[in-house]
Structure formats: C-alpha cells, structure tokens
Amino acid sequence: MNKKSKDSSKAKKNNLLHDALIKKVIENPIAAKEFLEEYMPESFKKVVNLETIKVEKESFVEKNLTRQLSDIVLSAVTKDNQQAFIYTLIEAQVTPVLDCTQVVEILPSFARTSYERQG
Question: Which domain, by its residues, includes 103?
Fold first, then answer.
C-alpha cells in the first residue's frame, strides 16, 4: 500500500469515527435540543416546543449505506400540540458528495413511518 492509499484509508476511518461521535452526541436529548436551538431557523423554533425533544430509535438508512450514512430521528410536540418529526441525515465524508438519489430513496420510508405513527 502506498503512502497516498494509507492517508486516504486513515482519513476515511477518521471521518467514520467523527460521524459516529456526532451521532452519539445528537442522540442525547439535551445535545439534540442545543443542536436544534443553534442551527434551526427561527421559523422552526417558533413552531416546535424544543423542551419536548425525544430521540426516536428508527433508522431509515439501508444496511449497505451504514458506513457512509447515519440518521437520527427526533420527535417533538409543536406549539399547537401536534406531533412533529425531525429527520437528520449525517454523511461520512468517505465519498466526496452525497448522491441525491440516496436521499430520495430514504425520505419516502421516513415519511411513511411518520404518517403511520400519527394514525
């Protein structure tokens, strides 16, 4: 293995570890709330009661993509007492850019599950 291949392999491993750490942190409800407070637009924060954030256990990433992608589903109650779901997709930078077809394949599963849960 040449030096360039070793560096690339090390970078991939570091990215995977970093993304696993980010996912682990965001799975903590306090950290998830702080993340949403920091990065969500004001229009979102006006609608969702961030005190009700709950980490859900579902994952919609297919098994063959779990080394590249991880997802976190959060639920919350809106200010008008409706259930809301927040879907977060995290890409390990193993590949340069997330293929949008992967996102298009994931979103219907998430939407279907959200709809079923609302009864």
Answer: 3-117
